[in-house]
Each structure stands twice: as structure tokens, then as C-alpha cells.
Amino acid sequence: MPTKNQKISKEDVEAYAASLKTPEKASVIPTNKIAATPAARRISKETGIPLSSISGTGPSGRIQAADVLRAEKPSPVSSSDRQAEIIPLVGMRAKIAHKMQTSFQDAPHIAETVEVDVSRLEDLKTHLNEVTASKGKGKVSLTAIIVKLVAWTLERHPYINSSLIDENIYLWHEVNIGVATALENGLIVPVVHGANRLSFTETAEKINDLSQRARQGRLELTEVQRGTFTISNLGMYGIQQFRAIINPPEAAILAVGSATRKPIVIDNKDTIAVRPMISLTLSADHRIIDGVVAAKFLSDLAKVIEHPEILLE
Questions:
Q1: What does DSSP say about strands 229-233 and 252-256: parallel, antiparallel, or unpaired?
Q2: pLDDT means per 10 residues in the chain (313 residues)?
Q3: I need a labelling partner for 280 at 20 to 30 A (CA). Which of 24, 45, 237, 267 fits?
Q4: Which CATH superfamily is domain 91-312 in?
Q5: CATH fold of 10-72, please?
Q6: First to last CA, the chain
Q7: In the chain, which residues fall in CATH 3.30.559.10?
Q8: Domain with CATH 4.10.320.10 in the chain
Q9: Measured CA distances, 129 to 44, 125, 223, 232 (Å)
């Protein structure tokens, strides 16, 4: 304490105040004395997470921004509560996820469905396979036949065979049809280039070759590029109807369901017969394809499927 008539200084007051603090209060470490980066302090202030509750991973225990962010995240469920195999979303699966999310967010999808009698396609398939078998060639699938008929229809509906790129609509002169092919770790879409110029058997040979090499991981980059339309067929898995997501930058995709035998009315006299029917669902980018345009495409496709002899006209 100062002697008589001696002035009291600022330091005397601070020393006296410090002597009055309890040991517990004196041990509290002010936030600004904790070693932390400016970014860590800002995030701490925004999130309300005190720096004193965080262990720093920086030099000399300095708290980094990542330390605060890590503290903000909820703790994962322990393996003792729920057992699971954790598979990182990386590689092909991650690319597919990003591409499909972007497509669904950017392109407003519309979907239209028709049911089609494939009796004549089944007869055509039987005939084509008899021919290819006699020549020692591979089988012709229903998918290959549909690809050929879709190519024919796309030539007559250019907006379905188009892309929206940089605010411009490209009506492609080429008809390059991608066929979605399932792999063990994802999905790939090999492209049948110039599908409108191929015969049924040539289309089948091309698809068989592309599908086999896709599963072997031997496709060339050019064989998955420049597609103008995609077909996804899940009929072989018993799926009767579904809606597919557009494969950008294409404007539409066709989802093909399984052939199911159903009783239907076959004439204007209400005659009922059991016929193999398939569901076709067209997903289209509504920014450039109106509902009527999509409907006309499906109508013409249904006609040529039910009457494939139209190709000869």
C-alpha cells in the first residue's frame, strides 16, 4: 500500500483488484488467450462452440478452423448401435450421382407413358434369330429391335433428338442412341452411332459387342460420347414401368418395361385377346420439349412397334 501523502497509481489499483480474485476465477483462461487462428475464432463465434472445449491440432496445440468444424458435426452412430458396411461415394458411383443430380435439378422433367402391343415384335424377333442362327451370328434382343425402331422415329421428331447447350437448341442430324448398361459398380451408356442407318441385325451385333466390352471395361472413350438419345430397359428384371432421368446433355430418355401378357380390346367390336404389352415412358426436358411434342413421338413409336412393316413403306 502507498505511504501517507503518496499518490495512488493505476498499477496500485490493478494490483489490489487482482488480490481480491478467488483462485477459481483467476484460473479461467480468457478466450483471447487461447492459441487459435483468426478463422477458428470466427467460426467459434458463429457456431457458439467455445474454443476452451476444443483440442487444437495445429503447431503447439493451436486450434485450427477444421478443429472447430469437426467439433460442430454430430458424432457418428457407434458401431455398437448400428452395424453397417461403409462404402465411400467415390469413382464411377460418385460421377453418376453428380451427373444425375445435376440433370434432375437443371432440367425440368416431364414424363409420358404408353402401353404397346409387342406381338409383332416378338414374331419379328423369332424370325431374325432364325436368320442369324443359320449364319452363326449372335441373337437379336428385343432391345436391339426397339433401338432400330426408336432411331426411325427420332428422324421424324428432331426435338426429341436434341440438346440444350449454352441457351441454344441443337437439333442433331446424327441419331446416336445410348443403351444404358448395368455394371457391378455402376452404370455406363455405350452409344450406337448412326443407329438410323443400321439394319436390325447390324444393330443387334453392335449392341452385343458394346455390352460385352462395357462389362469387361474395354470400351473406347468415343464409344460413350456424342449420344443424342438414351434407352434404359429394365424389362429383363421384371420391372413393368419406371421413369428414367435424362442423360445430359440429351433432351430425352426412354424407359422400357417388361413384356406382360394382358387381356386387351383388339378391335371396335370389343373383342378381347391376351397380348404381350410393354410400357414405354418418355422423360423429356420441358425447357425445349412440350407435352404434345413428346406425345406425338410416343404415338409414332407405338405405331411402328405394333406395325413394324411401316419401315418398308
A1: parallel
A2: 56 58 46 80 83 84 84 56 82 86 93 97 94 91 96 98 96 97 89 96 96 92 96 95 96 97 92 96 97 98 95 76
A3: 267
A4: Chloramphenicol acetyltransferase-like domain (3.30.559.10)
A5: Dihydrolipoamide Transferase (4.10.320)
A6: 116
A7: 91-312
A8: 10-72
A9: 70, 6, 26, 22
Inter-axis angle of helices 65-72 and 38-47, nearest 10: 20
Tell me which amino acid residue 172 is.
Answer: W
Joined grid coordinates for residue 254: 426412354
Of the candidates 127, 173, 193, 286, the residue annotated as catalytic is 286
